[in-house]
Give the backbone structure.
Amino acid sequence: MSCSIIRQRYGTSDASVKAEKPRIVVFMPTYNGERFLSAQLDSILSQKGNFDLNITVRDDGSTDGTCDILRRYALEQGVNVIYGEHIGVNASIMEMVNQADGEAELYAFSDQDDVWYDFRMQEAVDACLYPCDDIPLLWTCHEDLTDEHLNVFGAMPFPKYLGNFHNAIIQNKTPGHTQVFNGALLRLLQGYPPDSIFVYDWVLYLLASAFGRVLYCARSCGMYRQHGANTIGYSANKWGHLTRRLRRLLNGSLRGISNQQEHFLARYEESLTVDARRVLGDFINNRGNLFSRIRFALTSKVRRDTPFESLQFRILYIFGVF
């Protein structure tokens, strides 16, 4: 897709000037994160490379010592902090996204409890700053899995079908703690209603898969800390990972996926390609009765990373889990 077509499609300016020293804004939501917050902030502030980096934090009504830590970093390191009431991570993220002026070259999401390797942001800069910066770009990376003491026990799986919309409909391949994106993608996300979001990073991945490009760095760029309180994460063994998935299945939370995708279709339907509009519409509209669910499960091109995972999805779809 040419730069001129991208500009017409997204309403971006005709000028595409590559900044000599790009500006990066890191969005971090916090909530009762005093145990690991300082280590993550230090790792972000210690990033090496040719860029200017700013951190915006929104605290979601913490009741522990998180706000004391944030006040110190605001005073000593210039971290921009928003103190708010407890509204949840999706709404907290979207408040920061909506307040962004859109003038930075790159934006990134960060969890409050990880540690970034000091070359991470330069890897993203090198990959994302194309001569044509009107294309919505999403950069994601490999990360080491660690316990709460940062002892490495594994690594995130390497993704397949990255950026394939037929996969993106049913599988989020770019966790928020790995996401770096440009202003064109930020503008597509701005204004998205938080109450229609299942998880914010999935919406960003859908947008990049539908309208832009997804870039992957196979080099491990950080430590994804697993400490038992992760909202979504990985376990050191397959049984722990299976337990997490079963818990989400039993509590009915997977229905939120269909609600999110339904709103995504309604919001961007006119801009989607014919194929993307069709496959997303089929996923949403065939849930009504058993016959239509069986037909969709047997004929649809949607897929997850492995044949076994794809089979799991099709069985769950037939039984109306989504």
About this structure: The first strand starts at residue 23 and ends at 30. The domain at 16-236 is CATH 3.90.550.10 (Spore Coat Polysaccharide Biosynthesis Protein SpsA; Chain A).
